[in-house]
# Entry
Amino acid sequence: MSSTLSLPAALLQPLEPYRDTLGTWWEHVCDGVANAPDPTLASAHLSRVLEHGHGSGSVLASPTLCRDLLFLLGSSEHLTNVLLKQGAEWEAVFLTDCHSPGKTVVAHLAVLRAQLPLDLPDDEFPRGLRVYRNREYLRIGARDLLAIAPLEETVRDLSTLAEAAVQIAYEYARECLRAEYGEAVIAENGGQRPLGFVVFGMGKFGGEELNFSSDIDLIYLYERDDGFTTGGSKGTTHRACFSRSSLNDSRGP
# Structure
């Protein structure tokens, strides 16, 4: 018996306008809807995806890939919305994410530093970081939901993403403070060098065991309390400088 005959008509109603254009792919779609965690959600979400076209057909023409897509669409409202933001590129993004391995902190930072220059206005930087985070959530989440990546890879991937986000946020915060307050420095060997600063990731973050619902716990430590910044339009104490840096760094994307 075909999947079409076993599904309530109301369930497929959002997809009826696309039935003729889907042609022989219709059965793949019905099968995917029937096997989705939430068939109603999968059907409604696919109708929104198809507003952007069906791409080359590589996904919808494949029974396996079509079922995987509808499993994702029937599992997560958030990941669906991220996929929808890719517009007509949704198919290429889905295929890429399914085959994309985990990323290192170095790989994340290479992209983030290219996409988010440190002279961005302070409203654009967190917005850009959110876009990157959500795009990575789609990659990690798709591989997790479809059982492509083992649990160990998923938690490690989330942890490296968080580490890269904290690092780029720190770099941006310190650059913004440097422009206003100058550099926090320490005397050494007859000269000066920038004062050291480190961020410790605690708990699941430090153990590379973050999951999608985890908060991250951070401890900030700077090298020396006494002294003042040099340069910038106005100076301040090291304590005040790094307190501001920590507050800016802690603001979530």
